[in-house]
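Both lines are quoted verbatim for reference:

——
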Amino acid sequence: MYYINELYLKGSTNLDRDIFKYLEKDYKELYSLGEDINNLVFTSPHSVILKSRVFIETLSKEIATFEKMDELNSLNLAERLNLQDYFQVK
């Protein structure tokens, strides 16, 4: 997101750079979804919304695993987001 904002401020329209490249090594699934989002952003906005939802779902599962909260991975995204009150996330 930072890269896109930087391009916008500079007035550039060149979005050829892969903003999800940093995920490629350790998070193949996230990288693949990110690539799809990047490639579809100007041609299929509806698909980008759907892929973004899957990206967020996958990212939240990765975070739960990283934070050793594996029990959250059995929940769907809406259920995980509703639990934020229990974890005092603001």
Notes: The first helix runs from residue 2 to 10. Residues 1-5 have pLDDT under 50 and may be disordered.
